[in-house]
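SEVERITY: medium
COMPONENT: batch folding queue
REPORTER: lab tech (J.R.)

DESCRIPTION
The queue accepted two submissions in a row. Attaching both inputs and their returned structure tokens so the on-call engineer can compare them side by side.

ATTACHMENT 1
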Amino acid sequence: MSYATLNTDGPVSIVTLNRPERLNAIGAELLADLHTALVRAQTEPNTRAIVLTGAGRAFCAGDDLKEFGEQSQSPASISETCDNIQRITRDIMFGPKLVIGAIHGYAVGGGFEWVLNCDMVVAADNLICFFPEMALGHFVTGGVTHLLPQMLGYQRAMELMVLGERHDAGALQRLGIVNRVVTVADLLPAALALGNQVASRSMLATSQLKRVITSQLSPQLASALELERQAAMACFASADTAQRIQAFAEKRI
């Protein structure tokens, strides 16, 4: 069973996170399968736009804390985990095709980061996004240390990342993080309609537009991705982080 599926029927490919029993929480297998699906979608000749969504009740509930022990057991496992997380951002942002998020339920931590990596976002009216990393002793990734200050300004970005407050679809739209808000039932049709609008544009022109924009971001974004990777590795190896995650797990039992 793949934790990320790809549907390539027509000009708009759909990449779906497919671990609904865990709210599409991010683990090693999901990262590997999502990378494969995104690369295939970005290189599929008939695909002109990509919709990224999640199966079940949520888009992505963030890191699977049940895998923390395995992820943090050695410097090699920590490095591999952090590398694979940052690789998804590169797959979304530096591929030639526009990626449209169709986001519902919870988009937490890494899931929220992937929302911010999309070129356009259609949100369901039940969407909730937040960053729990600072409370858990983790570190934000996905280039958001560069992207969020660019989008929101320094203080607002710090507020979102440090306080980890929950934001609904309406608030996210007012912040400029999502483009459109629709009902849950209308989410995928609306995202596909937007994808088909994108697909009707010149593929050469849209791919060049994305290349030009991301090329201007890339020196700073590449630096942010590497600095985040280093910071995330330090947090994974921290005894304080392990204690915070254990306390969080015990609180949920």
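ATTACHMENT 2
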Amino acid sequence: MKILAMTPFAADMNLGRAYNEAMELLGPDDWAFMMDHDAALTTREWHRQVAEAIAFKPEAGAFVACTNRIGAFWQQAGDRENHDMVHHRAFGAERLKIRTLLDVTDTMGFGGVAFAISKRTWDRIGGAPDGMLCVDHGIHFRCRAAGLRVYLLESLYVYHWRRGPLANGQADNLPR
């Protein structure tokens, strides 16, 4: 089993198709760790954390990370307004002490800032829906419909820029 970190991209903004194309690169026993283009890992431990979660719950549909700026409040951790990476790296290191998986299957969907999913799950759920917005929710609901559980890896914290301030103080409201 390999865990491959990926940041799929499509110039035509069809993130779902980009995810599907990326997943075609994986072997049947592999996992993908997908990250948004505006996300950053805060510790070096992400691979160990994901591998440990997979070993503990190999039947899981997906694992999602905590982050600072996201609409899914059950994934929210950290300071939304602080964009100092030293701060976020320290917060991420502190989160490493948490050793729990929170079942978020019955929520309104995960935010896909950073998530792990297996090739087997991907094939079972029929991949990601086409489009840009709510692709992550589509993956979540497809996992749930297939009877697969989705877990929040509470120790894994990633920083998410999402509409953060630009150098001139203006908000970055560029399309995601």
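NOTES FROM REPORTER
The helical segments are 15-23, 46-56, 85-95, 119-125, 135-145.
No errors were logged for either attachment.
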